[in-house]
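Submission sheet (multi-component)
Chains listed below:
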Amino acid sequence: MTIDPILLALIYILIFPGFIFLTVYGLFLQWFDRKISAVMQNRVGPPWYQALADIIKLLSKEVIIPDACDTVMFKILPYFAIAAVVTAALLLPIWTDALCSFQGDLVVVIYLLTIPTVTFFLAGWSSTSPYATIGSMRVLTQLFAYEVPMMLSLIGPAILAGTWNISEIAGFFTAHKPYMLAQIPAFFVALMALQGKLERVPFDIPHAKNEIVGGQFTEYSGRLLAFFYLAVDMEMVVGAGLINAIFLGATLGTAGILGAVIFLAKTLAIVFLLTLTKVLMGRVRIDQMVRFCWQILAPLSMAQILFDIFLKFRLG
Amino acid sequence: MSEFEKEEKIKAQLEAKFGAAITELTIQRKNRIWFEIPADRIPELMKFMKTEMGHTHLATITGFDGGENLGANYHLTDTHGIITVRAKTPRANPHLPTVTGVFPGAVPYERELEDLFGIKIDGLAPGRRYPLPDDFPADQHPLRKDWKIADAYPDEATAKQEAA
Amino acid sequence: MSKMTIPLGPQHPALKEPVNFTLVLEGEQITGSTVNLGYNHRGVEKAAESRTFLQDIYLIERVCGICSHSHTTCYITCVEELAKALVPERALAIRTLVAELERVHSHLLWLGIAGYEMGFETLFMYSWRDREQVLDCLEMVSGNRVHYGINTIGGVRRDITAEQKKIILSKISYLEERTKYYVKLGTEEPTVLARTQKVGMLPHDVALERGAVGPTARASAVKRDVRKDEPYLIYDKLDFNLITHDTNDVFGRLVVRVLELVESYKIIRQVLNYLPEGPIAVKVPAKIGPGEAVSRYEAPRGEDFHYVKANGTDKPERVKVRAPTMANYPSVSYMLDGGYLADVPMVIAAIDPCMSCTDRAMVYDNKAGKVQIYGWDDLRKYGIEHYKKRGIDFSKM
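Outcome: structure written.
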């Protein structure tokens, strides 16, 4: 029996590993993150359906759009964020191979993951309220701080594998597992940068509630806010999946259900590390964040790249 | 009276400086001195207390309604004892000089005197009223003894009567 | 970058009680700030004049939810001085015990809020969990978690049994263990250091000039603590240290508060071991005075000041309450200027503000009451009239 390739592509895009899977797994990761941090903080934490309940509740609420804002921008931005994240997910090897895989898809994923951040900035900026404006300025400042270390940390493995194709990088590390250990500094940099991209403690500066209330999302409500939250949750899946593919060899050469299980287990482990960072720290100030990214993360990933080039020459 | 050695010393210093202006000086107990001084000499006294007597802390200013006179008690401390200085001003035209030149932290205390007792503070920098709400009648001063709730909120008072 | 004015409060996630700060920002930096108080004015001072001395204890207790014992003890000291009552030593010791338990509860609460304001939720959860221990102690001693109602004119209302003493001691040992952990956390955790050091600077001479009190002043190396300067209750019989710190910043205030916790545990142990036998209250006549008295008290937030004037009846002629937050407010605008927006919640929280203490007095908020008395339509009419007077008429639109 053969399945029509177009139908297969549609299933890929809409169900697995596309929109539906991302939604469900994103919400699950959100719950996982909240539950784990609650347990660490000696609290009970939310029940398993809490993340879904939050989204459903928000979807049923009235959408209030401020008079002073740019209505069209205000309305379409959440959908842009979700579209960019779902597109990026299609390029990741989640089971066997990615839906579409080509030379240079690593760069495309990085840029697709930047689009949600830009929509956050525009969302805050087009809301025109003071809290949202300050929040969006912080989003942009923060973007310039973590984006370069993130990029640099992903270049190292790519140089070592000698390819810009995510699936091929994963294949390289599957074949040469000991080299994964050599990438630990870059892995750390990528985790911290991802924490910044997802705007989580200690880098939740753009929507620090005790300073600027809801930050860039202050004026958002109802459905539009729900989609923004969903985009952030999905971004967590895609970010963890990207780190998994680049540093941990994706599915480790297995295919089908076993491959998906390995993917889930490793992304859960990455999210656990992110949660641990969140629980162990307080929020830093924006200037401290920028300094940390440029003075520690960027040089660290540069050193990793030099090391990888050296290793590449030794390998021949 | 060796028990009140420090208090007696303060008394002597004050009387040497201000002479007959200081009246009704009493040493209530250890660490407590009370006296009265004409209102116009308050800033001068505060400056003297702060720079030469080491009473660097103005704990607060308590307004009072003494019938014919309104007035204020200035509570000064050198962290060990409290000296309370009383100044009176006639009810018909109540006003006191500001002490914010000596104690910058006294602004809210003086605004309280203006709002709650209607004592005009000469020289106090203009600013938002405190602590009464913005829409409270400006000519009513709730801490005066003759003020009734009905003066400001007639509806509220009748509603209360009806309920009772 | 152009200047931007943002309102902080009266309703804002960083503030637990209503106060308004108007901040002028240039980018992230603050170039000017004004503080507006008065959102919580309830008329306590006026109300106190129409109640008896005994009823006033319960009114004054409700000046503040956290330092309720501080206010009543301070007030009652004035009243007892006017009534020339000789309070039994055991009552004074019990008052001291409750006072120190209250300080522990307040400082742990502050630690949690500080953690929350710097986005460190784990610290917030941990210290509030531990605070439950001391709230349990207070509930056991007084029957209440927050408004203890243990003071009465001439003594206290409840005695301490040997069993209670044992339970308090065991809980204090647990808290001491936890506090050691907080000291370590507060002085070593890098994000805590990054958010507190060199933030909200208040130099020594400015602290003196602006009349700062309590831990805020002590973190600027001002040696000012009423328990040492003018010992009340039984503090002159106790051995404890006056904690100061010389970094002048939020970090200093954190260290001072956490180390004061340790001193409080020491005091609680001493008081429980001292606890002399005897009655816990004496009878005091209802009519007091005439006369006037002032007293001071080291509340968890700093010097609390009360003035009571009696006129020979059973009601006071005048009661004045000056809460510590009031004395610390002039320092806040100094600390905010030139700082970062991100530090504002930390700086404000660092003085441990208590608005309801500060604003005290005045008739109840009539607007909330009017909704019930008039109904919605009348309120609407009132609103339209109100704006008509200011030249804005919506009815023609």
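Remark: The interface with chain B takes residues 36-38, 41, 43, 45-46, 81, 208-211, 224, 229-230, 292-294, 296, 303, 305, 307, 309, 318, 320, 322, 326-327, 329-330, 359-363, 366, 369-370, 373-374 of chain C (CB under 8 Å).
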